[in-house]
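User: Predict structure, ligand adenosine-5'-diphosphate.
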Amino acid sequence: MLSEFELIDRFFLQRARQARAYGRAAHLGIGDDCALLSPPAGQDIAVSTDMLVSGRHFLPDVDAIRLGHKSLAVNLSDLAAMGATPAAFTLSLALPSAHAAWLEGFSNGLFALAERFDCELVGGDTTAGPLTISITVFGHVPRGQALRRDAAQHGDDIWVSGNLGDARLALGLFRNEWDIDQPAATLLDVRDAMETPEPRVKLGLALRGVAHAAIDLSDGLIGDLAHILRRSGKMASVNVDAIPRSARLAAQTTQIQRMCTVAGGDDYELCFTAPVSARGRLKDIAAESNIALTRIGTISDTASDVATQPGTIAWVDAADAPISLSLTGFDHFE
Ligand code: ADP
Ligand code: MG
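Assistant: Predicted complex:
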């Protein structure tokens, strides 16, 4: 059995020191009571924390490499949504036992992603307990340029990156929620969306000065877009049929497609608003970043009636006919 300190040293400290980003964000990293970070002059530090609990955020038997990836990916996704450059992170781990093979996989998945985004591991905490992973990320963004939720403006287009709904489709297939026969390949395909999401960091950076408001889609479009709307005091009209989806999802029933694209969580794509004048620039950004960007709706000011309160989303179909959706975003306590 590994001791707490052997475990930290072998799977986290040594790995952090081998990383290309070592010493870049912190002039004192793992090993003291605190890390000391050195933010670039004139930039704000963007901070975000995300916790992953076994059985709630991932299936208990998920592959350790994929779990290492996802734990950091969901945090980097928050930096992406803010238009921040990743710099550093801390890792707090509760582990039922210290299994070297599992830790090796977890550490490999985690550091592979950390290396790609030059994000330096600067500290953490390790304890015995039910498997829980809590990461705090630190990023940099020039003062005044962060993509905030409260900045949507009347007339803005609403955009989303990539495809939505595959992670939810995978979860439904795992849980046998729908009485549908699927070729095994479908499950493998959408399973990647659920277990190895790609944080849209480069897109977030490219959107600085172009997008108005932004959020990353972790709890489902319907709930996450409503966060932008409420914070901005706006409402929206969204075309459900315009929401981009994979061919796998498009082959399912309309009901499954809508529930996965509208209310499915774990997409980690960006949803953002931008003025109509930015359409040309966004086309270029999509081409440069090789990420599809799709326009799904419009932001508008609210009126005084109940039907147009801040946060309201008016859903329409491809024929522009209003439809009512009885779907909600994910809430841990509902
Ligand atoms: P403390 O007693 O202050 O909680 P610890 O003994 O828990 O410190 O940790 C020793 C050092 O190892 C600290 O610098 C801490 O940031 C780091 N550390 C602990 N766990 C991890 C981890 N899972 N990943 C990275 N660094 C860690
Ligand atoms: Mg500790």
